[in-house]
Specification:
By secondary structure, the protein is an alpha/beta fold. The protein has 22 helices and 16 strands. The strands form three sheets. A nine-stranded parallel β-sheet has the order 7-6-5-4-3-11-10-9-8. It has a five-stranded parallel β-sheet with strand order 13-12-14-15-16. It is globular and about 85 Å long. The termini are far apart.
Length: about 625
């Protein structure tokens, strides 16, 4: 046995491998498939992502030497990774809302967002709403009708003064969105700047409250790509900053009154990069409004509130929403945001319950108390992949910001509807990707639960998308509103229509021939038609086409799907088509070489990986006389 530790460099046994050598090996393993098409990800955000990154990819990046809590704050705006666990509170009365608030404060929430009704905006009601809540111990936030924000701030300031609280120690925000009418309702509001000044004046007695919201989560909820959300958010924030400076406010005061609300998608690493880039770019915007270190201090620190997305939430298989929101919350927490709200999994139904709200709270608490995400500051720092993503997201978002600025700025672009049209175009593009399964929503356009019904759960009277604007206080003019149709909405409408029928179409799998192919295609076709809520009859296989057709017709099938191999379709498909004799539609599971010949015989339907799933199912619903509401 050796008595002394050997002084060896184990890495010396492994010679350095160049990037070109790695790519050559990968290309060999691809067996002729093109590297760029198979492995390079072309994102909707406007740039490409390589399958691997190395140290050399960090060369030229300018942000790597920035320490946490140091300008431009790309790594963090503070020296820890604590964040506020926020949850909305509403109720029929101030007393009911207060009871709910006190309950959840004892269950891990330390940031309350009260949804305030107009009639509560007076001193007695506000006192009942905030009874027994220590205002300096938590983050306190409010949302109400836009026209009532100034009144709410005045009443809240009166309550704070009456309690003898130090107003400078009360931290929180008011969700006053000066562009909500244009973005959500499609109405141009000509008194915006006057209203902004009124809100700022009303907040004078509350120096630590952020009262101007950049509600970039609206873009996320409307289907925007990540760089679009951030680029538009920066333009929006810059617009507010310029408006306040023109009104006579100092840069330091103006910047500290603005807070950003971002949506968080399931694009895990891209979202981490987004929040890091947002800190960086906003700090540069604030610093550009003056000279000297005072413009690089606390006033240049962005306040980020992250909300898990609603765009990718689904009504069918809704518990999958928990998986989506959990990864989204992880992204936001690891990225170092200031506060997080988790959207309850049953939000698409139009109402939420105590159970779903409890789960939403606990999703954050698991990350804090069991995973200790709050103990590590910027864990993504130094990752080749995340650092490159941060740089790419920042550059693309900045390009969008400059584009909006050059076109007249955010206010002009929102009033003309250009911002909304841009986001809506992305919404439409993503809906098309979902229809063709290029973008997956598990349980909706892939692997649906065939037997699930939800009609009784959906609140038809509620604003199920969750973006009602309240009263309309617009003065004049109309413009384009954002389209908040979720990614799953078209499939859900299709399936709800099917669910409402006394008889759901029956799809019969006529499996024959090559064992592996018939089973694979039967599974594919079952998932395909299951997205419409059709009933499925699967089979192990038939010896003859005639036997399969006979059993299908005996079981009163409405659709017969022929499942076999490409080579065998040339024989089986014409035989099946002749035996069926137009009684029910025949569908070929696949896209065989003989497709043109089969179409010449009169066979119309083929389902395969390149099919437009939604359009095909809508065509079948129309064939069966099933109309969507």
């Amino acid at each position: 046995m050796a008595t002394q530790k050997e002084d060896r460099n184990f890495f010396a046994e492994f010679p350095p491998i160049t990037t070109e050598e790695w790519k050559a090996k990968i290309t060999t393993d691809l067996k002729g498939a093109p590297y760029d098409k198979k492995l390079v990800w072309r994102t909707g955000e406007g740039f490409t992502v390589e399958p691997f990154y190395r140290r050399e990819d960090l060369e030229g990046l300018t942000h790597l030497d920035v320490a946490p809590n140091t300008f431009p704050y790309i790594r963090s705006t503070r020296n820890n990774n604590e964040w506020y666990v926020r949850q909305s509170v509403s109720g029929a009365t101030p007393e009911a809302a207060n009871k709910e608030a006190l309950d959840i404060l004892g269950k891990g929430v330390d940031s309350l967002c009260f949804v305030v009704k107009d009639e509560w905006i007076e001193t007695a009601s506000m006192e009942r709403l905030l009874k027994d809540i220590e205002l300096t111990a938590i983050e306190i936030c409010f949302t109400c009708c836009m026209a009532k924000v100034a009144d709410l701030l005045k009443v809240f300031a009166q309550v704070v003064k009456a309690r003898g609280c130090d107003a400078s120690k009360i931290h929180g925000c008011v969700h006053y969105n000066p562009f909500k009418r244009e973005l959500v309702k499609g109405r141009v509001y000509t008194e915006r700047n006057k209203e902004i000044r009124a809100v700022m004046d009303a907040a004078k007695e509350l120096p630590s409250m952020r009262v101007l919201a950049v509600e970039a989560q609206l873009f996320n909820f409307a289907g925007a790509y990540i760089t679009e959300e951030l680029g538009c958010a920066l333009a929006w924030g810059a617009c507010l900053l310029d408006t306040l400076i023109e009104a006579g406010y100092a840069v330091e005061e103006a910047a500290k009154r603005i807070h950003f609300n971002f949506g968080t998608s399931s694009n895990y690493f891209m979202e981490i990069a987004k929040y890091r880039a947002a800190r960086w770019l906003w700090a540069e915007i604030v610093a550009s409004h003056g000279s000297g270190d005072e413009y690089k201090g606390d006033c240049a620190k962005i306040y980020q509130h992250a909300v898990s997305s609603t765009w990718n939430q689904t009504r069918y298989d809704s518990y999958v929403n928990l998986l989506r929101s959990q990864t989204e919350t992880m992204s936001a927490a690891l990225a170092g945001v200031d506060a997080i709200s988790v959207t309850p999994f049953d939000t698409p139904y139009g109402t939420t319950d105590d159970f779903s709200r409890r789960l939403a709270r606990n999703q954050q608490l698991l990350l804090k108390e069991e995973s200790h995400f709050d103990k590590v500051l910027d864990p993504a720092a130094g990752s080749y992949y995340v650092e490159v993503l941060t740089d790419k997201v920042a550059k693309q978002s900045w390009s969008i910001f400059l584009e909006i600025d050059a076109a007249g700025g955010f206010a002009q672009q929102a009033e003309s509807g250009k911002i909304q049209e841009r986001i809506n175009a992305s919404n439409a593009k993503r809906h098309e990707a979902i229809a063709k399964r290029k973008e997956t929503l598990l349980g909706t356009n892939e692997f649906p639960n065939f037997t699930e019904t939800i009609k009784a759960k959906v609140d038809q009277s509620a604003c199920a998308e969750g973006h009602c604007c309240g009263q309309d206080h617009s003065k004049e003019g109309t413009t384009t509103a954002l389209d908040f149709s979720r990614g799953a909405s078209a499939f859900e409408s299709l399936r709800l229509a099917t669910e409402g029928q006394k008889h759901q179409p029956v799809v019969f799998m006529l499996t024959i021939g090559n064992l592996a192919m018939r089973l694979a295609r039967s599974q594919f076709a079952g998932n395909f038609f299951g997205c419409a809520g059709y009933k499925l009859i699967d089979n192990l296989g038939f010896e003859t086409v005639e036997a399969g057709v006979k059993e299908a017709l005996d079981k009163k099938a409405d659709i017969i799907v022929l499942c076999s191999s490409d080579d065998e379709y040339a024989q089986y498909a014409p035989e099946a088509f002749k035996l069926i004799d137009g009684k029910v539609p025949l569908v070929i599971a696949g896209n065989p070489a003989c497709t043109d010949d089969l179409k010449a015989l009169g066979i119309r339907y083929f389902v395969h990986v390149k099919s437009d799933v939604l359009a095909t199912l809508q065509e079948f619903n129309k064939h069966f006389g099933i109309e969507e509401a």
